[in-house]
Amino acid sequence: MIWTIILLLNGILFFYFLSNRTRSKREPPLDKGVIPWLGHALDFGKDAAKFLTRMKQKHGDIFTVRVAGRYVTVLLDPNSYDTVFQDTASLDFSRYAQVLMDRIFNLRLPSYKPDTEKAIMRRHFQGESLLCLNHVMEKHLRTLLTLETEDLNQSDWKQDGLFHFCYSMMFRAGYLTLFGGEQNNNCADAANVYSEYHKFDGLLMKMARSTLKSGEKQTTGMAKQRLWELLAQAGLRQESSLWLQNYRHHLQAEGADEETQRKAMLLQLWATQGNVGPAAFWLLAFLLTHSEAMRAVRKEFNSVTVPGTNTLNPQDQTPVFDSVLEETLRLTAAPFITREVLQNKTLCMANGQEYDLRKGDRLCLFPFISPQMDPEIHFEPEKFKYDRFLKADGTAKKDFFKGGRRLKYYTMPWGAGTNACVGKPFAIQSIRQFVFLVLFHLDIELHDREAQVPEVDVSRYGFGMLQPNKELQIQYKRRDQPFFQ
Ligand code: HEM
Known about the structure:
By secondary structure, this protein is α+β, with helices and mostly antiparallel strands. It has 18 helices and 13 strands. It has one domain: CATH 1.10.630.10.
């Protein structure tokens, strides 16, 4: 008994000293929060943007916070981000990625080779292969849009939630393009996958934070099980994209068993489909609530459409749409960029200040706060301005400044450095094509004309695209004659 108590006390003391350190002079300001061990975990999880904005006001562009026993140094100076991306020896991307892979997807690869995986993907998402993927995606978007509206009379309005409309359509088209696998040509398989995926996605943040309640554990367990079954043949059949077939071969060559391969398929489904639908939602939501922006996009689409066709080619120049997309993503893309500190190192900030980072800590960049919502960089950053990224002559604006310095990173929805999004060109063309087809073929409007763009679900900061905290109701009908004016 006495030994148990002594061991327990030792454990508590060890834990206390481990999680209760003091700041040395060369380290960033340290803010442990008042709750032992937990530190700021609750505030961080509830609304990371609000919490980190408060910490920035208190401590400046760099500080260390305690979060559930871990020490996380947060860097919020975009002029200093490159020092992080360039140091791949001391700052590691893959360890934390593997923690999340296990927590969310129950995935432990026998040998995780992110560089090889990325090289496979890059090969298939550029040049001729990309053109081919864009083409297949467009074909599926057209089919789904037709299926969605074919039972409507020309005068019937159909009601839907805009988020559901965009996410389910982009997801199904993306799934069919990359994962293939329609047994009966009526898109039912894609709809089943989306329906299970939707349950899984709704609890994603809780899985990432290991805060699922027992009923929720059951829901995610069943959804994952079902998705693993539905994805069993992905990458093994001819209709899957060449990328996914290659990725399967890679997994097999690395010795991953069948079960592990299915889990990896779900990870890829999330990486490729989790952001595009929400991005399309926000973009259409802003257009439907900002008539000037809508008019400008329609006019531009009209000017690039060859009369008699209804196709938007990837090479067509659409600077107005590009600015609308950039502005949309500035306001709604909020990934954390996280690195594990593998060895003690000194971080040199752009202003010449130096800070020591400790081995075992985590480093986190949050571009959503700066550059994206930084009032020093973007005037009235909380407002949607469709032409924020346009110059007076109508070309793309790329000059933005902070502290008198021209910024390399003035918005960062796609991440940056070696881990930047590999699917960016495919994602952009998919969203552009979707918006083009919707505006070309549908009369679409808000159900309540006075409705505003919903607020974001503040629990989702850190995982790519944000989602709305409620639906935006729309109504649409097929146009008698497709046109843009
Ligand atoms: C609006 C849509 C999208 C956004 C905003 C987005 C954003 C991002 C971001 C921020 C990262 C970096 C994550 C990090 O640093 O930890 C990332 C990584 C990645 N994205 Fe995207 N993405 C989108 C769509 C896509 C699509 C359509 C694909 C593929 C078809 C894709 C494939 C990937 C992959 C494979 C990675 C991992 C790269 C790596 O491990 O280094 N993304 N994405």
